[in-house]
Amino acid sequence: xxxxxxxxMLDRIEAVLELARPALARHxxxxxxxxxxxxxxxxxxxxxxxxxxxxxxxxxxxxxxxGLMREHIxxxxxxxxxx
Length: 83
Known about the structure:
Blueprint: H1 9-25, E1 29-37, E2 42-49, H2 57-72, E3 78-81
Parallel strand pairs: 2-3
Antiparallel strand pairs: 1-2
C-alpha cells in the first residue's frame, strides 16, 4: 500500500477494502464503502452478493474487515455495516 501521508483517507480505506475483496469474492460476495465519519473515526460499509444477509457477515466484519482496517489505518476505531 502506498505511503499513508500521500493518499486521502477515503483512498486509503478503499485500498484496504481491496485487500479483503478476494476473500469475499470466493464466497460470492463483495463489500462497498458507504461513508467515513471523521469525527467518530468509523467506516460504514455495505456487504453485497453472497455476503449480504450471511449469518457470518458480522464475524467477517469485526474479525476480518475491521481488524484489517485497524492494522493498516490505526486511527480508525470501528467498521460498521449498513443495509
